[in-house]
Specification:
By secondary structure, the chain is an alpha/beta fold. It has 3 domains: 3-235, Aminohydrolase, N-terminal nucleophile (Ntn) domain (Glutamine Phosphoribosylpyrophosphate, subunit 1, domain 1); 245-436, Glucose-6-phosphate isomerase like protein, domain 1 (Rossmann fold); 446-593, Glucose-6-phosphate isomerase like protein, domain 1 (Rossmann fold), CATH 3.40.50. Helix 3 packs parallel to helix 4 and helix 9 (299-316) runs parallel beside helix 13 (400-419). The chain binds 2-deoxy-2-amino glucitol-6-phosphate.
């Protein structure tokens, strides 16, 4: 989704803005622009383009000396992809960039008679027009008057042309972070990645507080003018974590980072082979009277939740409901005060998940966020937070975040099983000792990379592909199919292997790739029968299983043998293979897997 960067200080702004926008490219966007005080005087210049950051660079002045400006990458919502619709928007003395959606922009247009000043089709330009209409030379007064009039989500960064060197900002829902770096100046961004080159410290801009940045510092005040304290946070990763470090793409780098990410996520949470959440501030009492669990999440995070469900329900008999967060609000949630609601999110900013969480909080005080980004909104809004420690995930396709989410589900399942008396300490110890082996398992599986790459050659011309499995293999297949769809654009669906013959098998014809996952011993022979059914109809079958060798050609064309692990842990090596298949299918089709079309890393609009 849209990205924001702003800087005022001692350095030249243009390079900071353009480099910051390049760092934000991973969020997904279709146009880009900057606004800056020309020659640091009371005049704002704008450069923007319907294209990528390198296109924007081409239309920028080479010798721009400005020390204050704002930049934006736009992911189109209102109005198509065009230079006119790209941000920044300028009306009169106001130039601004905006993340979010102003829902009442039509009403504002007619109520304040703004239409004649508009040049674009965007809700953002209406906001610029409104700020301009209410502006009488005092930026803070203008923001105080305009902000309560907006309905929707917004993160605004505003330049007032008669206030050179100053940036003003305000937000509701849409995230924004800022920092003051001694010697450099003040930075603001939609996420820390944009200014991580300059500072590992940052603060979250609080909602409905006016931020005023100059080269000398940052002030914060509420809408009544009361000064507010700034609370800084810091991250334990640096700029290299947000770089490719020799890999061709972020995605493949992140696939390879999974062993370390899992170590970071589980090691400190297993003590004497038992789950240990004291350092997270999560008390056992959170779990002790849980009657059932609802998991809310979107996309990959939801599929991690599905694995959690299969595990918790099948292993420990705890009822789990996994709900697509964007639908949760429109269902009648069956939640009681004893329901534990788990919100899973890499970014911690997905608006659908956040809205679902807010609704859940009306029914229970047992909400737990499983989130990767420290201090993110979902983390702050939940009663408890269980951070995953994947480090920054830049590629749009989630890989390492999924693995650590799944690992977190295993830890939570173990804790729930114990606290609710559904299992014994010895059983949990065995279970978690197995979990500790996962980083090594993934390491071993990564040695199959060249085989995964080679087999995709037969897939790249496919229009459709299917993933099949039973039990945990089925839930894992959903993630495999999503990965393939989003970065290779091959239409892929996951089916419970036993369900195929109830309709979908009609789509299986000569050469259609079927990725069959058969790692669960209890249903192994049944899955093999299902595989034979598709093989007999001409499918190109890629089998993922724990068998050392499959020589029977009536079962599969390609066999990838994962390390011999307990059934419940097979998800980890299997997903790595699915990730590699998706990655190499994407490369084979000439697509940049890091920036698939139409997708955004963090989905902050409904
Ligand atoms: C995963 O590859 C996708 N990019 C997407 O499904 C993602 O998992 C989903 O949008 C949820 O994001 P979140 O984890 O940041 O909430």
């Amino acid at each position: 989704m849209c990205g924001i960067i702003g800087f005022t200080g001692k350095r030249r702004a243009q390079e900071i803005l353009l480099n910051g926008l390049a760092r934000l490219e991973y969020r997904g966007y279709d146009s880009a622009g900057i606004a800056y005080f020309r020659d640091d005087q009371a005049h704002v210049s704008i450069r923007k383009t319907a294209g990528k950051v390198h296109d924007l660079r081409a239309v920028c002045d080479k010798d721009n000396e400005s020390h204050c400006g704002i930049g934006h990458t736009r992911w189109a919502t209102h109005g198509g992809v065009s230079t006119a619709n790209a941000h920044p928007h300028r009306i009169g003395k106001v130039s601004l960039i905006h993340n979010g959606i102003i829902e009442n922009y039509h009403e504002l247009c007619s109520k304040y008679d703004l239409t004649s000043t508009l040049m674009s089709e965007t809700d953002t330009e209406v906001a610029a027009a409104l700020f301009n209409k209410l502006y009488d030379g005092d930026p803070i007064a203008c923001i105080k008057k305009a902000t309560p009039l907006f309905v929707g989500s917004f993160a605004f960064c505003i330049l007032f042309s008669d206030h050179p060197g100053e940036i003003f900002a305000i937000r509701n829902v849409s995230p924004m972070v800022a920092t003051y770096a001694e010697g450099d100046g003040a930075f603001i961004a939609s996420d820390l990645t944009a200014f991580i080159d300059y500072s590992k410290n940052y603060f979250i801009v609080p909602e409905y507080q006016i931020l005023h940045m100059t080269k000398d510092g940052i002030d914060l005040q509420d809408l009544n003018g009361k000064p507010q304290e700034i609370t800084y946070l810091s991250v334990d990763w640096d700029v290299t974590a947000a770089e490719k470090e020799g890999y061709a793409h972020y995605m493949i780098k992140e696939i390879h980072e999974q062993p370390q990410a899992i170590h970071r996520t589980i090691d400190a949470r297993i003590k004497d082979s038992l789950p240990y959440f004291e350092d997270d501030g999560i008390p056992d009492s959170l779990f002790s009277d849980v009657s059932d669990i609802t998991i809310i999440a979107c996309g990959t995070a939801m599929y991690a939740g599905m694995v959690g469900k299969t595990l918790m329900q099948n292993k420990f008999g705890i009822g789990v409901n996994v709900v697509v967060a964007s639908e949760f609000r429109y269902e009648r949630p069956v939640i009681s005060e004893h329901t534990l609601v788990i919100a899973v999110s890499q970014s911690g900013e997905t608006i659908d998940t956040l809205e679902a969480l807010w609704l859940a909080k009306k029914h229970t005080e047992k909400t737990l966020a499983v989130v990767n980004v420290k201090g993110s909104t979902i983390a702050r809004e939940s009663h408890y937070v269980f951070y995953t420690h994947a480090g920054p995930e830049i590629a749009v396709a989630s890989t390492k975040a999924y693995s650590v989410q799944v690992a977190s589900m295993y830890l939570l399942a173990a804790k729930l099983g114990l606290v609710l008396g559904k299992t014994s300490e010895d059983a949990v110890k065995e279970f978690l000792d197995g979990l500790r082996c996962v980083p090594d398992l993934i390491e071993k599986t990564l040695s199959l990379e060249s085989r995964a790459s080679a087999l995709t050659k037969r897939m790249i011309n496919a229009e459709h592909a299917f993933y099949i499995g039973r039990g945990l293999d089925y839930t894992l297949s959903m993630e495999g199919a999503l990965k393939l769809k989003e970065i290779s654009y091959i239409h892929a669906e996951a089916y419970a292997a036993g369900e195929l013959k109830h309709g979908t098998i009609a789509l299986v014809s000569e050469g259609v790739p079927v990725i069959a996952v058969a790692t669960q011993s209890g249903v192994y022979s049944k899955v093999i029968s299902n595989i034979r059914e598709v093989k007999a109809r001409g499918a190109y079958v890629i089998l993922i299983s724990k068998d050392r060798k499959i020589s029977d050609k009536s079962i599969c064309d390609i066999h990838l043998s994962i390390p011999d692990v307990r059934d419940e842990l097979a998800v980890f090596p299997s997903v790595v293979i699915c990730q590699l298949i998706a990655y190499y299918a994407s490369i084979g089709r000439g697509i940049n897997p890091d920036q698939p079309r139409n997708l955004a890393k963090s989905v902050t609009v409904e």
